Amino acid sequence: MNELWNIIVAVILGLVEGLTEFAPVSSTGHMIIVDDLLLKSKEIFRPEVANTFKVVIQLGSILAVVILFKDRFLNILGLKKEINGVRKKGHRLSLVQIIIGLLPAGILGVLFEDYIDEHLFTIHTVVYALIVGAILMIVADFVQRRRKNAAIDTVDKITNTQAFLIGLFQCIALWPGFSRSGSTISGGVLLGLSHRTAADFTFIMAVPIMAGASFISLLKNWQYITMDTMPFFIAGFISAFVFAIISIRFFLKLIDKIKLLPFAIYRIVLAVIIILVFL
């Protein structure tokens, strides 16, 4: 019975990770509610095992992005000339632009990793991040509605400067609860990208930085992946992968239609729930 419950916990946590990691709603905020309030995985497993598990399920979400954007990644690497049947000629999104976008958050993440882990992973800071992030998303939608020029409708038109500035917005996501997608999509929209284009660039840019951070963390905690914990990790990984596929496809179909406002409202509601339950 305990083994079955462990698998159920893994699947639920994988579901939460998959549905929220790439939506602009903060996977951290949801993990606080679902894990700490309902499932308490750290009471089932040692904290080190529970933390390693969260790294494993994040890799499941990353794999979903790689699968969904495989043609784009192959094109960036020069291994494929066509995306969805369209031959990419002239300017196209390059590996250099992705690196430019990654540099700001990558540098700050390394410099302030210990400070972030010690001081920003609290319920209070997550609540503040949810609310401030919601305000940024509302502002981005407002600016986009008042803009007279047509929005940039493909990542192939993103300039090096825009890639760098979006990377600066990604730095805000080092604040747990702010949401990587929320910060970078909002930044992209403020810089003249369509919501869909900003989302595409966000997902593409997220893969190397999230994969790198996850693999480093996994190497540090490899000893906690044992035969006893393996079923738990596998169930969570598969769950996160499947639900991330569903979430990303659904999100990309809707984002240009519904914009960021509904997600901003949802974030505020989530912040209120956390305040009422935890504070």
Automatic annotation (TrEMBL):
<feature type="transmembrane region" description="Helical">
    <location>
        <begin position="123"/>
        <end position="143"/>
    </location>
</feature>
<comment type="similarity">
    <text>Belongs to the UppP family.</text>
</comment>
<keyword id="KW-0378">Hydrolase</keyword>
<dbReference type="GO" id="GO:0050380">
    <property type="term" value="F:undecaprenyl-diphosphatase activity"/>
</dbReference>
<dbReference type="GO" id="GO:0071555">
    <property type="term" value="P:cell wall organization"/>
</dbReference>
<dbReference type="GO" id="GO:0046677">
    <property type="term" value="P:response to antibiotic"/>
</dbReference>
<protein>
    <recommendedName>
        <fullName>Undecaprenyl-diphosphatase</fullName>
        <ecNumber>3.6.1.27</ecNumber>
    </recommendedName>
</protein>
<feature type="transmembrane region" description="Helical">
    <location>
        <begin position="258"/>
        <end position="278"/>
    </location>
</feature>
<feature type="transmembrane region" description="Helical">
    <location>
        <begin position="231"/>
        <end position="252"/>
    </location>
</feature>
<feature type="transmembrane region" description="Helical">
    <location>
        <begin position="7"/>
        <end position="33"/>
    </location>
</feature>
<keyword id="KW-0133">Cell shape</keyword>
<keyword id="KW-0961">Cell wall biogenesis/degradation</keyword>
<dbReference type="GO" id="GO:0009252">
    <property type="term" value="P:peptidoglycan biosynthetic process"/>
</dbReference>
<keyword id="KW-0046">Antibiotic resistance</keyword>
<keyword id="KW-0812">Transmembrane</keyword>
<dbReference type="Pfam" id="PF02673">
    <property type="entry name" value="BacA"/>
</dbReference>
<keyword id="KW-1133">Transmembrane helix</keyword>
<dbReference type="GO" id="GO:0005886">
    <property type="term" value="C:plasma membrane"/>
</dbReference>
<feature type="transmembrane region" description="Helical">
    <location>
        <begin position="53"/>
        <end position="69"/>
    </location>
</feature>
<feature type="transmembrane region" description="Helical">
    <location>
        <begin position="163"/>
        <end position="178"/>
    </location>
</feature>
<dbReference type="GO" id="GO:0008360">
    <property type="term" value="P:regulation of cell shape"/>
</dbReference>
<feature type="transmembrane region" description="Helical">
    <location>
        <begin position="90"/>
        <end position="111"/>
    </location>
</feature>
<dbReference type="InterPro" id="IPR003824">
    <property type="entry name" value="UppP"/>
</dbReference>
<keyword id="KW-1003">Cell membrane</keyword>
<comment type="function">
    <text>Catalyzes the dephosphorylation of undecaprenyl diphosphate (UPP). Confers resistance to bacitracin.</text>
</comment>
<feature type="transmembrane region" description="Helical">
    <location>
        <begin position="198"/>
        <end position="219"/>
    </location>
</feature>
<keyword id="KW-0472">Membrane</keyword>
<keyword id="KW-0573">Peptidoglycan synthesis</keyword>
